[in-house]
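Support request, please re-run this one:
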Amino acid sequence: MGLPSWITIDLFLFFMLLFPLIEVRRGTVRESSQCRYFTWMSVLALLLLFGEVLSQLSIGGSLYPAVLGSFLVSALNAMEFVIWMLYASSWIHAPRHRMRPYILREGCCFFLQLHLLLVGLGRGYFPWFDVSGSFAGGAYFLIQLLPILSLAAFGELYLISFRKKINTFIRRQLMLSLLFPLLGGTLSVFFQDLPLELMGAVCMVQFIYTFVQNQDANTDFLTGIANRRLFDLRIEQKVRKAMPGCAFSAITMDIDGFKQINDTYGHGQGDAALQSLASILISCFRQDDTVARSGGDEFCILLDVAREDTLCEAVSRVRKRLAHFNEKNEFPFNLEISAGYAVYDPNRGETAAEFMNYVDQLMYEDKHKRCKSRDIGKIENQIENRMENKIENKAEAIKQLEQIAG
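Re-run finished. Output below.
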């Protein structure tokens, strides 16, 4: 005697969810916000699966398990989108107050969905499985789908609104992930005998794990850009493939006075500065370029540029964007960088490590020049202030002599 088809499908979905959940919890960045929200999504999808199993059970001819299970599926399916929104927010480099209205809209849609379900409780307004195992869509099945589809649409608009504040690859994958519940919700209108909404939610979690969350091994959890591991892999590939006429370039930069920023304004402001610089760098370079945080406040960029003048323009573009950012006064300090950059010469036969040591040395030379320039500027300001004080004192002395003579 074979298993019922719904049991086979549910077991398959269960293992689809369990594997990524275990793998994520075994990862090295379990405490990151991305990992936390992904875990919530996975656990919620498992609860959805449990509700779907209940919806197909009738104990002693009672419909209560089926009604309860169906209620859980419909309610938690909307909640999945709210957690998805929080997960997406963890990848966006923008002030929380700017993202809050979008998250509140998701919450309102969820509570609307919950209200519709509570109003229809026990009245056959929402889908459930009857005692014979037949699926009943409910009198207002289409109406209760509207909040679900609205949640997915809000999610797409959310990512479009903050497209400049999130890594392009991650944004595209998150936008694609929402197509699964959208497709599942739409098809469930025509195929009401299949748990397509649940399948859509499970496929969304699996897709996010495969194409977003699984990238954690190569992603800096604070900024969402590439980490040193991925940068080292890519520059090794570039060096192996380099030949005359097919060169590449590298840039290293760090934040001036980063230790003072942490000591004066706290590590929260320091983290925000790192995230802001990462966002600026993403906007300044092409998608094919590698923008990585190599550690601390140091960033590395790998780009297919063979001309030094083009490379100088790229660094100048970053400095202009930083100057424009500082004009907004988002921080109580100016965000400034020191940078070293060079074009790789295949004829010199340098290894990746030797080339990056050379670029690092150029960055430290630039930092020394900038510090020296700032020190000279301070001395000039001090001299100017002293001269102004002397002039003011001399004018005051002349005024006092005139008063005495008068």
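The longest helix spans residues 352-405. Strands lie at 128-129, 135-136, 226-227, 249-255, 290-295, 298-303, 337-343.
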